[in-house]
Amino acid sequence: MNKKEKFQRLLSENEFVFLDGAMGTMLQAKGLETGGVPELLNLEKPEWLTEIHKAYADAGSQIVYANTFGANRYKLAETGKSVSEIIPAAIANAKKCCGESTLVALDIGPIGQLLEPTGSLTFEEAYDIFKEQIEAGKDADLIVFETMTDLYELKAAVLAAKENSDLPVICTMTFEQNMRTFTGCSVSAMALTLEGLGVDAVGVNCSLGPRELEPVIAELSKWTDLPIVVKPNAGLPDPVTNTYDVTPEEFAESAANLVKYGVKLVGGCCGTTPDFIRAVVNRLNGMKYAKQDVKLEAAVCTPAKTVEINQPRIIGERINPTGKKLFKEALKRGDIDYILGQAIEQINAGADILDVNVGLPDIDEKEMMVKTVKALQGVTDLPLQLDSTRPDVLEAALRVYNGKPIVNSVNGEEGSLEAILPLVKKYGAAVVGLTLDEGGIPKTADGRFAIAERILARAEKIGIPKRDVFIDCLTLTASAEQAAVMETVNALHRVKTELGLKTVLGVSNISFGLPNRELVNCNFLQMALTNGLDLPIINPNAALMTGAVRAYKLLANIDENASEFIAAYADSNMTTSVSGSAASAPAQKKGAMDLPSAIANGLKAEGAKITEELLKTHDTMDIVDNMLIPALDKAGAEFEQGKIFLPQLIMAAGVAQAAFEVIKAHMLKSGGETVSKGKVVLATVKGDIHDIGKNIVKVLLENYGFEVIDLGRDVPPETVLEAAVKYEVKLVGLSALMTTTLGAMEDTIKLLHEKNVPCKIVVGGAVLTADYAEKIGADFYAKDAKETVDIAKRVYGN
Amino acid sequence: MAGLEKINRSEAFRYMGVSGVPDENLSAAADECEVRLLSAAAPKFCWTYAEISGFAADGITLKGHRLTLRGKDIAEHLSGCFGVVLLCATLGNGTDKLLRTVQAEDMAKALVCDAMASAAVEQVCDSAEEEIKKRFTDKFMTWRFSPGYGDFPLDTQKNFLAAANAEKLIGLCVSSGGILTPTKSVTAVIGISETPVEAKKRGCGSCKMREKCLFRKTGGHCGE
Q1: B97, A184: Cβ pair inside 8 Å?
Q2: Taking the domains of chain B in order of start, what are their residue ranges?
Q3: Which pLDDT does position B217 carry in this prediction?
Q4: Coil, strand or helix at B60
Q5: What would the DSSP string read from start to end of A305-371?
């Protein structure tokens, strides 16, 4: 019998499976110092461990957790001991005192550092850290990930377990009273993501007492049909006495109350002792496991947002370079901010899910996809639909995606089914199935329906649940194939009603080559919605399209009391746009507004509008040199004189930026080169994650016509070197906020000098001084963003 | 815990280097940022009390703790104290996400938001201090002294967080570059004394920004 079977047998032969209680509490009672490394005791005091494990086994624990919670390379760094020394010893200590019937878990807690984007630890590094622990713990009977608060970290952990071991996996996360973890993960997102990744049991531990955890467990029971685990604290610790306030009897009573939600595995966390476990075992004696009858529905998620596909949901199509010059340019430059801007615009316009496609022949699509997915999940909570024709790109995106995404797409071709479906299964995604195959797109509804059936059968065969298969019956252009329109609509209807699957459809293609496209799109969208379309892929910024979906939901009695509709249109504006800054800008001054006064007053939308008008009568360089730059200079001078302050200077820059965007778009359209007064590489140095200062510098530089290659934050010296050489820049700007990261700044400068890169280096940041800048070999010290611009002008001689 | 209803604007404007009455644009941006920040932030704090077991040459040791408080400035700060409270506070991960989002939208707003978040986390510390005071009613407390002040080393953070169990209790970590994450967070030592603490101003002497501080140049200084 392998370990997975052994675990399953334990579950099937017992009404409940009892876990152990706290380890830290027991060790502190024996004399462990607060802040000490408890895992060292596996080597220093093995007898303490065997005593504790035995006490739990005697109290009735059927699974004991080895003392390995923090045995990772980060937490052990200063102890002089390695993961491969500590973990096997810890497992041996546990095995020593337990009989065959007690299983020993490799217990793995959070690494102790926050992952990107808030922290600097990458997803890949986290995976590597967990992998080392899992390999060292191969003698355990199962793996437990507990006290997790970051779904992303947990995903790295589960992948590391699944790819490097065959042991069963239990995951428990720690929730607060607001039903979220510290990093904002919801119960539903945990359940959807972990169930997709194929874990064996899921639940909660730590943080709260068993009574306070009830709403969390109740919610979890609605989202999973896996066995539910609960390991609560004995209440909360008192900061002065360090004691907990729940007694074993109260604990057992509250635990018994959770049984009705389908709890299968029960134990205790901080503050609990063998007495607590004994009390729980006694209290649950005679009770029955209340397996929940859950009907799981289609849903996708990010940690903070779960989107149930129980009504039409808009998939925004704008993150896609097809037919978009500015987008293509941005991809070639690696300009993530541009893509983020596209995302934010769609979110504010009403998108529920964002499609992400960054395929372009002359870029590294895989690298760009990973970068884009990571950046997007740093700023938005909307689930993503990962869109590529290449399986390797999809897999890379699926790995780093935080939550449960949609894969776009598989189709009925054998090669596609074989390449895509296993990825969907492994990473627990939903998938769009296109109704086409080796024979192309069938002309008839029947033909497309048959392919949908086949895709579903193949998906189910490898264990992808039916609810995760969404079918796209494919829109053909009405102007070319008028008769095909109703075939699409009819196929969609049959897939929805006969197969019971969710449906997807890209809508905008329908009107290609026709006048008044929006009218055609809108009507087609309504036809599709009425026939059962769940996921329209549209441009949410087109107010009529988003409005059509909202109106449908209102009329179909989905939008109860029309609340969503009213919320969207009560102010009579069809859409709100952040880029217009409409929400915060003061009442627009009508009449004699010109570009310089728009800049002086911080009016972004006005600035863009005026620029558009100006372009009809003025040359672009005339606008830049005679209006934009002088207005910015004026703002800069006022800033230096203390007449205006940094936020106002940046507001002025924001308007200029909006004007520049208009100019750039105009130049691309007319086939001209974009304005560039020279390229500057900017980076926040290795180890530093505060990049607001660097970003302010970027805005100002761009406004003066410089092309900024923004390397982001936490940038290693080698990356700066590479970019400086590749883009042949004359100026590199480095930023550091903390005294602890000034060393990295010095290293970066040294490397650029060693390699004789013919560029000047300007440095800035809160703790820097001119003296220090000189000492570390920088060419210039800039005390603020304005001064950086002056330096750039000098370096480039303009 | 640690409710935050309103953000101390005058403090936030001070961080932005704004003096005088902020103009209409700036006030409007502050209005928007305040609403968004209050909804994104999940303010939390935790603290633990420890008795001082010795003032040694290499630092102050705490009973039952592995943490040592090194540096002459912290020693001076705690002179006359018998115990310390180790305080940790954070606005949570959601605030970092908001700051990233606003940076992608509009840098001027991001600047305002960032400063408001800095003001907000100080307010969280203030409310923590109120709670702590209630547990030491007949004692005296020093002001908050954080790693990085004077010669109290920043690399204290990792052990500091472990001592206060801050990762488990409020989700606070430190990056390998020594930066607290979530970024809008504070750690601080408060000394507890039987006798009135000398009313030392929380001043510029121990501040690394003293040479560059715009506020100081105009004659101001931090603290009450």
Answers
A1: yes
A2: 9-197
A3: 62
A4: strand
A5: -EEE-SS--PEEEEE--TT-HHHHHHHHHT-HHHHHHHHHHHHHHT-SEEEE----TTS-HHHHHHH
Q: DSSP letter for A176, please.
A: -
3-state helix, strand, coil in chain B (%, to 5): 40, 20, 40
d(CA A386, CA A383): 10
Helix axis angle for A604-617 and A646-669, nearest 10°, is: 40
Mutate which of A648, A691, A786 to disrupt the B interface (most B C-beta within 10 Å)? A648
> Which of A118, A341, A695 lies nearest to residue B96, judging by beta carbons?
A118
Which residues, including other chains, have CB under 8 Å from residue B4's CB and lie 6 or more apart?
Answer: B38, B41, B43, B120, B123, B124, B127
Using alpha carbons, list the distances in angstroms from residue A229 to A94, A201, A291: 21, 7, 13
Q: Amino acid identity of A663?
A: I
The terminus-to-terminus CA distance of chain B in angstroms comes to 25
A499 burial type by CB count under 10 A (0-12 exposed, 13-18 middle, 19+ buried):
middle
What pLDDT score was predicted for residue B205? 64
Residues of chain A with pLDDT under 70: 572-592, 672-675, 798
| pLDDT score for A308 | 98
ipTM of the complex model:
0.88
Give the model's pLDDT for residue B224: 42
Cβ-based contacts of A767 with chain B (< 8 Å): 208-209
pLDDT of residue A589: 43
Angle at alpha carbon of residue A227, lines to A222 and A229, rounded to 5°: 95
In CATH, the number for domain B9-197 is 3.40.109.40
**Beta strand pairing call for A535-538 and A502-506:** parallel
User: DSSP class of residue A589?
Assistant: P
CATH 3.40.50.920 matches A679-795: no
The answer to whether the Cβ–Cβ distance between B65 and A34 falls below 8 Å is: yes
What pLDDT is attached to residue A237?
82
Whether the CB-CB separation of A391 and A379 falls below 8 Å is answered with no
pLDDT of residue A588: 42
CB A270 within 8 A of CB A24: yes
Burial class (CB in 10 A: 0-12, 13-18, 19+), A513: exposed
Closest CA to A708 of A679, A750, A686, A667: A679
The model's pTM is 0.91
Closest CA to A538 of A554, A520, A514: A520
What pLDDT is recorded for position A275? Answer: 97
CA–CA distance, A137 with A142 (Å, rounded to integer): 9
Q: How far apart are CA A722 and CA A467, in angstroms?
A: 46
Q: Is omega for the bond preceding B118 within 30 degrees of 0, making it cis?
A: no
Contact B168 A270 (CB under 8 A): yes
Model confidence band, residue B176 (pLDDT cutoffs 50, 70, 90)? confident
B125–chain A nearest CA distance, Å: 16
- Looking at residue A209, what is its pLDDT? 85
Architecture of the domain whose range is A595-669: Orthogonal Bundle (1.10)
Q: Which CATH number fits domain A311-560: 3.20.20.20, 3.40.50.150, 3.40.50.720, 1.10.10.10?
A: 3.20.20.20
B14 vs A contacts (CB less than 8 Å):
none
Residues B153-162 have a mean pLDDT of 92
Residue B35: pLDDT band (50, 70, 90) is very high
Q: What's the token pair of residue A182?
A: 């510290």
Residue type, A290: A
pLDDT band for B4, please (50, 70, 90 cuts): confident
CB A540 within 8 A of CB A349: yes
For chain A, which residues make up each domain, given as ranges? 3-284, 311-560, 595-669, 679-795
> Residue A674's pLDDT is what?
66
With vertex at residue B66, the alpha carbon angle to CA B61 and CA B67, rounded to the nearest 5 degrees, is 60
* Fold topology of A3-284: TIM Barrel (3.20.20)
